What does this fold into?
Amino acid sequence: MKKEHSVTFNFIMNFILTASSFIFPLITFPYVSRILLPAGNGKIDAAAAVVTYFSMFSMLGIPTYGIRACAQVRDDKEQLSRTVQEILCINAVMTALVYVVFGASLYVVPKFAEDRTLLLVMGTTIFLNMAGVSWLYSALEEYAYITMVSLAFKAIGVLLMFLFVHDAGDYVVYGGITVVSNVGSYLFNFLRLGRYITIKPVGNYKFCRHLKPIGIFCAMTIATSIYTNLDIVMLKFISGDVQTGYYTASVKIKTIVTSLVTSLGAVLLPRLSYYIEKGMKEEFKRMVSKALGFVLLIALPLAVYFTMFAYESIGLVSGKAYLLASWPMRLIMPTVVFIGLSNILGMQVLVPTGRERQVLVSMVAGAFVDLALNLALIPRLGASGASIGTLMAEIVVVLVQGKALKGFLSELWQGLKLHYYIAGLLPAAIAAQLARMALKPIVDGKFALEQGCFVVLAVTGALFFGIYGILLLLLKEPITMEYIFPILQKLGKRNGTRKDEV
It folds into this structure.
């Protein structure tokens, strides 16, 4: 049996992967947004949203269910092989059916027919998602491999972008490059399957045992997608490509920030599912408590800072043409906190304990709220209306999940120290705002928009997060003292040793 890495190691690997999702868009999006402009970006993001819907139906609920199912039997190769083969067969059948519907829609739906070539190119994602069996690698906690191969394909994607995307008409080419960058590594996943499972049929299949949980997870995915992707589709149909471009510019930054917050949760599902299967309840509870604290520690400052500095963030990442996206970004940034909480409560507590129905209820409630608000607000407010709908949907999801876990959370909540975070945030926010006011007369008129935004973000970011971190250390916030302070101590000792050696 392979050596099991610690959750800390898995988190570091996944954090590197998540950070790459932050760094690579910072490299690519400023370039692409200026080349393709809001209309071109709107086409790309609308096509991605459409393909995501078809991929969602082809994958059913397998990306999440597969992790739990494989994590529970990962110590038994024969059982693991049987489970993977059963799930993969179900996935392949659904993918074939979805491709039939997808192909027909490109000729039947007028809006799809307009961008048929782009949708065909980006539609290869549907097959790659099926072949990639990423859920198996997550269940086996192969985060080092996942991170390395993903980084390689992201780097290839950046290179291809600079080589082949040069004017607004290259949006189809860029669509293909995004496929390579995001899911190209899945071909390697499929080719490496033999390292972990038996490739030849093991027999004694029981496909039906997977259908009910997969159906529930599929419904969860559909509900979630309503308030994550439907916004973009509705904006395209109601308000056009430009408003879609504004919204996706704000969502891109929010998504990058959110991925940093949820990077821990991504590595917890297989481990927590394993704990539940083995009856290790105390370990389960301890890990969930620390995960909630970590989410609040990270999500609150990120949400506050990027809400305050939405204008500068949009100006730096997207350019002058997207400045109207700053209000949608301000409205949607608080979702970072609620997404972080629902990721822990739903996917890391309710799912491993077999209560995915309650997760489904929360997501359906959020989807209804989002759909209703989108219909009411998008015609009047465009991108800002979509942001409000998404924010309210995420709040509803957390409230419903919190109610389902009321007894469990009441015990854990006592260990969370929210007053530490508030005490750190208030001085940090005031200092950052004062710094912005002092910098404004200096950067206005002396720098181009992007340069001025970079200066403001660099100075205020260092000040905001520096003050927040120092205050948490001074106040001896538990998570900071347990994980960050020891690292600082080690760095201090190493520096002291080097000085002595000199």
In short: The chain has one domain: 7-416. Residues 7-416 form one domain.
